[in-house]
Amino acid sequence: MQQSLLVALAEIVGADRVLTDAESLAHYGKDWTRMIEPAPSAIVFPGSAEEVQALVKLANEHKFAVVPSGGRTGLSGGAVASQGEVVIAFDRMNQILDFSAVDRQVVCQPGVVTEQLQQFAEDKGLFYPVDFASSGSSQLGGNVATNAGGIKVIRYGLTRDWVMGMKVVTGTGEMLTLNQGLVKNATGYDLRHLFIGSEGTLGMIVELTMGLAAAPKDPTVLVLGLESMEASMSVLQTFQDNMPITAFEFFSEKALGHVMEEKGLPRPFETATDYYALIEFENTGEAAMDAAMAVFEKCMEEGWVLDGTMSQSTSQAENLWRLREDISETISKFTPYKNDISVQVSQVPAFLKEVDEVVSAQYPDFEIIWFGHIGDGNVHLNILKPDDLDKDTFFKQCNEVSKDVFAAVKRFKGSVSAEHGVGLLKKPYLAYSRSEAEIACMKQLKQVFDPANVLNPGKIFDQDQKM
């Protein structure tokens, strides 16, 4: 990068907030993906919405691209800067600016960490319900930019459902203030929802107004050993027909085995089954517990469940959740090839069986780890790299497998990315879930908000117009 441009960046954010050393470029230029090498030209740390505006205007003036960077926990390469872009890291914009107990709303900067908002809500006797394994490091701006889901979607919905307002800087440097915390607002297009899930390609999120919920009462966890994956649908329907639940997750015996070995956690019960369901509900009193036990017993009588256990305390509930939540961290050492896919809930067992057979037939030596949010149709396919196979060969073979996996996704009318976005890694497969007409409309929207293509170019799709 030219020295004159580095000086211009420093004039906006301060000289000590522009980094060009190799270590910083490598750290801030990537996310959790490992398939694309980062190669940004500089990292900048704005401290205000106005500084973000100035940076975007400078990008237009000097014709360079910018990539937004939050907690860098993405799994699709959406925050990877691989083409000499300037990374705009939101780590400094990490303040909670305002709170209204009446509205149950909190105004945040985009760099607020998810867990930070969760703790703030808890301190106010409220609850921020969007939760996932990376909540301790992911940032709200990134969560909104990818419409993050997590473990409680079945009860509370996606991140989208909790964004009550936002401020964004478009690709031209214009500041838009959207919805302003209103519950009802029928004044034309709700542009807020265009920016949610747009992965920083339409605008930079510089402020968020997030809704909060009432705190749950005594979350209680069941872990059930399933007779088969097909049985999970009967178990889910029976629970939903008889009581409200806040989560319905699943994981395989192979996934459980890795977690027990790595984390030293005990098996939840004596019986080993191919698949497990984790169910959470609010223990609001004796009636709730009686209902849970009655459904559990019915599932046992029907043969859908072979064994199970229920938490008796908060600490036990947390330990049972670890059997599911610790999977990603545990298998990371095996360099997994990850796919985050979704189909209609009722189609999950058939879809999972078909994909499992496809992968196993082509690469019988690959270990397949399944887990996910079965209650909302989102499953995570993880293929573990054999020790004797180099990384490049492994990823090349997995990319070939992905074509068959996504062909199955298309047959089931599902999504190639349920909650991690498209980024760079899923871009070649976007047409498996989106029609040509839809993609053309998205490109037109990109042109409206970012005509010079300075914002996260090359993510989701390749824009026809170049800078």
TrEMBL record:
GO terms for biological process: respiratory electron transport chain. Residues 36-215 form the FAD-binding PCMH-type domain. Its cofactor is FAD. GO terms for molecular function: (R)-2-hydroxyglutarate dehydrogenase activity; FAD binding; metal ion binding. The keyword Metal-binding applies. The keyword Flavoprotein applies. Its EC number is 1.1.99.39. This is D-2-hydroxyglutarate dehydrogenase. The lineage of its organism: Bacteria, Pseudomonadati, Pseudomonadota, Gammaproteobacteria, Pseudomonadales. Keywords: FAD, Flavoprotein, Metal-binding, Oxidoreductase, Zinc. Belongs to the FAD-binding oxidoreductase/transferase type 4 family. Homodimer. It catalyses: (R)-2-hydroxyglutarate + A = 2-oxoglutarate + AH2. It holds the Pfam family FAD_binding_4. It comes from Pseudohongiella nitratireducens.
